[in-house]
Structures
1.
Amino acid sequence: MRKSVVTALLASAITLPIALYSAASVSAPADGGTVAIVGATIFDGTGAAPAPGTVLIQDGRITAVGADVKVPRGARVINAKGKALLPGFFDVHTHWTAGGSPGTFPQIANAYVAAGVTTVNDFNEAPEAFAPLRAWLGQLNAPHVRFAARISTPGGHGADWADQATTIWVNTPAAGKAAIESLVPYQPDLVKIFSDGWRYGVSPDNTSMDEWTLKATVEAAHVQNWPILTHTVTVDRGLVAARAGVDSLAHGLQDRPITAEEVAAIKQSGMAMAPTLAVYDPYKRGDVKADDPRLKQTFRKFGYALGNVKALFDAGVPIALGTDAGMPGTPHGPSTLHEMELLVQAGLTPSQALVAGTQTSAKIMRIDADRGTITVGKRADIVLIDGTPWTDIKDVYKVSQVLIDGKLAFGAGAPALPAANKTDRLPSISVPALIDDFERDDRRSSIDTLRVDTPDGGIDRSVEITQTVPRDEGGKALSLSARMAVKEAAYAGFAIPLSRGSITPAKISGYKGLRFELKGDGAYTVRLNGLDGVWEAQVQGGAGWAAVEVPFSQFKPVERRGKTGPAFTGDGITQVEFGGSRGPGKRMWLQIDNVRFY
């Protein structure tokens, strides 16, 4: 499938739910009532041959499956004659990022539901965001979303842009174990480790995680029953992951063809792979020529990835479905369906690709007792399709109806979308005037949010330490000390979220500006970060403490990607940030206290 088809399907994934929900033709069942899906050909996700039958559902669970199942009196009947019935699809690798397509939380949910994707793993979030996002999902018509905690090495992939509240940096076994222990209060559903520093052959590998650290981190996570997926894209590092006990690779191996001996080693380890072919598909941005010199390396690596998928699958290595959706050219929803097409292109049969996207994905995530097949007792996450995708994989795009927990979530008969699905954010909240007086010792603000460091991005990042320190006058202040990276526009700073995980925006238009006390060695930047843009003002620090007031009128929109942001309105604000820049390799320090709106 080429770009025109993906674009059209993405558009339908966003627009169809509203149109079809408004055309409801079947009333919703009362709570506890039985739903009967009759007339479908059932592909149960185990690899068994499809067969006609009836599926009964009660209280969100499958209670009966088969050709001889009787429909009880009073059951709500869904006539699925001529349709295929399958388990809902499971994408084990997605990023619900603002830079994706779509880029807002409710619209991403809409796109997945419309594509028949009923469970996803999200690799994008800081652990602080898990609780507010789980609460938000409770308001939405959405797939089941499982949140991954992130661990990398200093400067490693995934740590080259994120703060350590989002991606923990480790490079020893002790640090790996400590990282897992620090995540226990957040209860992630899984852990992603960025263990392979190879940047697709365009940068040197100087950030890969050593085998001892990886193994210790995996073992600590398994004590918590958290599956481990790793960002691993080279054969040699794949073997390291296998020896370390990783549950599944989160990408395909694409630097060279894998040998029979290497395949056997991975098979023996029990490790699986979710190859994310969709994100690497060289055709995803449109029709291209395979002999284009700019794309020769891309085609070569993609060919290795396809061949290695087939070699591993033929040896019995479990192949799951993952896409890396949210990355450029990899839209949420349609990319999951496209991944199954690409698995077929790699050499799997359509039936095998469907099993990868259902049972196998659930199994490697250790939740196959709950979902992944059409089996009595399992969660009633079901997709109905107008076609026979086990013979023609392209039929996966013909999604007719989707049930999540036994309730119609998409298609004819489904209720109207909740209001929350039609917005792109949570309602703004009010925040108190005092944001942080830095009196707490747990890195949390006066409004109980976790402060985050905001150094520049890249493999070489500015090194900074933020901590509370005593003031001579009494009380405490926040101290930032930094050594700038050796590059232009090096930056170090910290941000105070206005809500937990910076998920719920704040409306601060009732205030006039920002007041704080500052001590420093030169010029600094103050930013108000929001859902619609970033606004900043410049301030000057000196050797002694000084009270600073910055009216909102002095905050100017920051230019991003060549575009100037909107004017400041005081709504949709998520963070207050302080930081500064110095020359390459230079030092910077500042102290801040009593940050409040006035």
2.
Amino acid sequence: MNKRKSLIVALLCAASSGVMAQSVEDGLKDLYYGKYLSAKQNLEKVIAAKPTEDKAYYYLGIAQLGLDDAAGAAATFQKGLQAVPTSALLQVGMGRIDLINGNAAAAKQKFEAASAATQGRDGDVARAIADASSEIKGGDRAYALTVMEKLLNNEGRKKKEQYTPIAADYIELGDAYRFLGGENGGKAITTYEKALELDANNAEAVMKQGLVNYNARLKAEAVADYTKATNMDPNYGPAYYELFNFYITPKKDQLSWDNAATYLEKYMAVADPADKTKTQYLSAYISFFKKDYDNAISKGQATLPGANEFYQNKLSLLIGDAYLQKGDSLNAQKVMDEYAAKAGESKLDSNDYKLLSTIYMRLKSSDSATQNQYSTKALAYLEKYAGSITAKDPETFIQIADQLKAAKNYTAAAEWYSKANDVSLANKEQLQAIDYFNVGINYYYGAVTVKPIDTTLLNRADSAFQKVIEVKPDLGTGYYWRGQSNFAKDQQAQAGVAKPFYDKYIEMSEGDVAKNRTTLINAYTYELLYYYFKEDKANVKVYADKLTAIDPNNISVKQITENMAARDKPAKPAAKPAQNKK
């Protein structure tokens, strides 16, 4: 679950005076800075002092969700409703739990009831509805936008009925635009700017402008926004954490273990001092990023016994990955297998599947049966990883395809390369020849490594190589592989379907025979076979000479030459019948 709770800023600006309001404000301030355990402790004190403070129950539940304790949050919302049965805000809290549990219909019913009870004009309730609807899987993001627009719309209202917006309202409205995506990104940026007009030092608004830029693949701008947020408020931990997440993302223009360690240390300096387990986990993580894998393992193992289920997951991944990075695949397997068995299939997520797949791909055994078991498990976990990810990210899809290719699961690799291309095209990105080549070459090998050869896959390969030609017509590769794809369908070269592509390839490649020797042998061989079956002796000699020049012992030349000689050899005259002697 996304831990950025924009709605938690709301009462920072709106809280009234008095001891109780100040205590709630303390909890909200901790939530704003991502200090969930401290927020939980503060809000529990508020409830102990005033058991009918519904906002304390609600934000306590949000703190528990930040600590990945959904069951605890649900219990808090229920307890709050027992104390304040008419609380629309706590009704929204229960709707949030419904969404987390996958019951979108029940959630929507609770949200609409809470909105109706407050006539859509209560800022806390509106932000709570919009936040849940935007951030949680299965939420109605268009509904989130509608709720916030209704809150902020004062058209036709008397002055005393008009709603006065605060920065948190515009942040929540910006979030609604951001999660809707596409052309709404620009609207989100503008809306976050409105929040800054009301609160010039609001680091959350600036950080979220960075999220919009990152989603638009404006990575330099995103980093600049995250950095600006930390400069505006050096205690704003979530921005440091975004920078940390940016640099641990395994993409060629992002991944930097050194930068990741730097920003994780900065985050730790302002993180929640009450959350000891998190501090210990992050300390182990820093050792990992500094490639001190032994220290990461020892710190992680020391923290595991006292960790809750959430951190047991994270620590197991860290320890398993540390063993893998230091080259100890067997211990990595042991750690992750034990974790997977203990957690159970329903608790495993995409990160678990990804690491398990990588571990089993690295395992090697001299025993063929054991090696087959490793390969089978690696592919099974990879497929589960592929099925569990929700991000439409070309680079992630390419990583999956690369692993499938390495495991020689060529057809599946081709399909994931194709998915990556589809997402890039949807994002209006221009594809390169290599993008189409990756699809074609894997469909080709997927076709020719099965018996009988799969012509459907060959047709897909042929189509992909045609795209290579369209993108890069001055490159011989596309013509050659169209030739190969059609050669595989016409292995006797009698139909001539590969000939136009080989003709073009030969024309483009004979200028550097040494560089293109292997590919020219294949092209010349098809031409030789084609003219042999056409009984075109002149061209048979042309391609036989070309082949012999670069491959003196070519078996095809030898066989065809012998066959033609035998064919041309005059038949022996029939023996005269013996004459009977008289």
3.
Amino acid sequence: MKGFSGVRVAEPPARSEAPIVTGRPHDLDDFGSEAGTVGGAEAQVIPLHGPGREKPEAVEAERDLREQEQAPVVAFPGGVERPSPAAPRPEESLSDAARSALGFLRDRLTGDYTVDEFGFDAELTEAVFLPPLRALYKKWFRVDTYGVENLPETGGALLVSNHSGTIPLDSLMTAVAVHDETGGRHLRGLGADLVFQVPLVGSFARKSGQTLACHADAERLLRKGELVGVWPEGFKGVGKPFASRYKLQRFGRGGFVSAALKAGVPIIPVSVIGAEEIYPKLGDIKVLARMLGLPYFPVTPFFPMFGLLGAVPLPTKWSIEFGAPIATDAYGPDAVDDPMLVFQLTDQVRESIQQTLYQRLSQRKSVFRG
């Protein structure tokens, strides 16, 4: 540039303009570090969220996401992808007991269950009657069994037992023993008329397999191959005073022997220890017994003084022994007409039970511990 005097004056250097950044303010991140010059010096554009200036929360979130994306995938051996297990169906998640209970209720509601000609309901007995009796059998009386090998696996047999205890729990415990020791066979007991005349008790007896103590019913059950139980002492045995414990009463006229002879089945003597002491009978209120229509009204150390609490049986230690079978098939069905033979077999069964009772009592050390 020339001045007025012709002297050349140096021109100032041209000023470079900084680049104009367009777009939204928060888009500055996309440019990274941009350099410009202001008055010859370079200007540095610093991003608001450049490296090292991130917020701590954002850093942690980004690090977690990166770690998840870079996590190794472990495959099963063989490279076979296993499908995810299907969710169990509601009925599969139920326990066996719950399924059994639901099935029992369904059968009851729909009427899909079987009752035999005597009124015996096997399903009801298994599901309702036996469980509480089994608790008494195992936990309260702690019953020991002997001679279970004498119980036949198939075919009929007549079980003849002593009777005691003021309340006939011995017949119920014997039924539990037969069922559990034979793998599910039921003892079909023969009961007195009074059992089936008492409300609820009679219905319970019928549905659990008991029937009236008569020759016709006994023979039919034995011919069908059932295990039949009989207690020849009757109420004289179950209601005898405590002073006469384990002394067998009269066995009647041998009606049970006649039924076994006609059906040609063996007779199995059964001896029960421990039932005599559950309700020690000290007396009998005959007036109340006549008013209530009962064979006796017992007085024990705890009943009726303590009311219903006195009706709880004492936790004595029990044992049930099944004796050697006495065969009857060799005599033939006509032998029932021989009174001497019937009397002889009746006395043989009674003596077998009595001797077993004396033998077990001599070995027992404690009423409550055995």
